[in-house]
Amino acid sequence: MTQKSNRRDFVKRSAAATAGLFVFPSIVRPSALGLGGKLPPSDRVVIGSIGVGSQGMSNMRDFLRLKNAVQFVAVCDVDSDRQKQAKDVVDAANKNKDCRMYGDYREFLEKEKL
User: What does the pLDDT look like over 21-39, one tens digit per residue?
Assistant: First the structure.
């Protein structure tokens, strides 16, 4: 059974859709849609690093240069000095103190869902 549509229904639906287009941007932040030169969160790669010696640190710095495309959330190394150094680099790049440190890769893999 099909329902006939008339001009009045069409105008009502069109007006509602147009109003929605104007209201939607005020509800959703532009950065969530990838506007304003920012990547939407769904396009950002979230990673952590296991082993942050000289080669691991070099790789990590290369990824951090990708700015908004990559977000480091954790580092793992058995050497606590290397952990701290890597965390400081990540925190400076991310402009926050959210990077987590691990000394055991098994704990890293268990807790971080990357």
Answer: 555 555 555 555 555 566 5
